[in-house]
Automatic annotation (TrEMBL):
Residues 1-225 form the Flavodoxin-like fold domain. One of its GO terms (cellular component) is cytosol. Residues 262-289 are annotated as: Disordered. Pfam families: Flavodoxin_2. It comes from the Bacteria. Gene3D superfamilies: 3.40.50.360. This is NAD(P)H-dependent oxidoreductase. Belongs to the NAD(P)H dehydrogenase (quinone) family. SUPFAM superfamilies: Flavoproteins. Residues 271-289 have a biased composition (Low complexity). One of its GO terms (molecular function) is NAD(P)H dehydrogenase (quinone) activity. The keyword Plastid does not apply. Keywords: Oxidoreductase.
Length: 289
């Protein structure tokens, strides 16, 4: 397989840095081709602005109001789609899109900060997965391609992340919320929305207190998960362009009757994979190595 590994941690000597080294070694030993986007090392610009659309003229705008469609104001969606179509996006964005086109699978690797990825990775998603490339496409019948279809259809996608808290607190009744639901915006709202098959996430718990043994155990578990990357069963999310949703994109009342919440968007939510074993016992959700 061809794999793009997107790494978002400011310290390569961290637990996450050592996990990436172990993961890359495993993939190399198995004969996979890997490219790495180390966002901090690259000095990745995390914000969308007019500089993303060089040579686009006045229509791309230089103002701060990104919502208006008139004059020289920047309309982000339109500018991104036009820039992608005309190959007028900034070179750093085009380079990352080329990596995605090349890849069969994408790994997003980051510490969970305030229940989401670091700003630099959010900015990578904002700037790279532009309209016309990853989403905003139509099928032959004029329907919008999303949630199981889109620009990344046919690719597999895996989250590798760490949290400071212990496993139970990210379980089904844990105070932080179930980890699959905490990561739902990425798993469902980014991967599945653009058509990529979202794999169950790999999570290291208690990361900020992990000793050498815990780190070695986490690395061994990650290597085992990566060995299954080509074959592991993705999360069974429902397709938008199916009979499961009505015209308002609401789940039909005869499906999962009486239930609400994020779990209803899985075909068989009871089959959700168990969280990975804890690496340590204590910590806060925002403090992750």
């Amino acid at each position: 397989m061809k794999i793009l590994w997107v790494f978002a941690h400011p310290e390569r000597r961290s637990l996450n840095g050592s996990l990436m080294e172990a993961g890359l070694a495993e993939l190399a030993e198995r004969g996979h081709d890997v490219r790495v986007s180390d966002l901090y090392a690259m000095g990745w610009k995390p914000v969308v602005d007019a500089a993303d659309f060089p040579g686009a003229g006045a229509g791309a705008g230089t103002g701060t109001d990104a919502c208006s469609a008139e004059g020289d104001r920047l309309v982000v969606g339109e500018a991104q789609e036009r820039g992608y179509r005309e190959r007028r996006l900034s070179p750093d964005v085009l380079a990352e899109q080329e990596k995605i086109d090349w890849a069969d699978a994408i790994v997003l690797h980051f510490p969970l900060w305030w229940f989401g990825p670091p700003a630099i990775l959010k900015g990578w998603l904002d700037r790279v997965l532009v309209q016309g490339f990853a989403f905003g496409l139509k099928d032959d019948q004029g329907r919008t391609r999303r949630y199981g279809d889109g620009g990344l259809v046919g690719k597999r996608a895996l989250i590798v992340t760490s949290v400071g808290a212990r496993e139970a607190s990210f379980g089904p009744r844990g105070i932080h919320g179930h980890v699959d639901e905490v990561l739902f915006p990425l798993l469902h709202g980014t991967f599945w929305y653009t058509g990529a098959a979202a794999l169950p996430p790999f999570v290291v718990y208690g990361a900020d207190r992990a000793d050498a043994k815990a780190a070695a155990d986490a690395a061994a578990r990650l290597r085992a998960r990566l060995a299954e990357l080509p074959t592991q069963r993705p999360i069974a999310y429902r397709y938008e362009n199916s009979a499961d949703y009505d015209g308002e994109l609401v789940l039909r009342p005869d499906l999962e009757p009486g239930r609400t919440g994020l779990g209803v968007h899985r075909v068989d939510d009871s089959a959700a994979p168990a969280p990975a074993p804890a690496a340590a016992e204590a910590g806060a959700p925002g403090a992750a190595e």
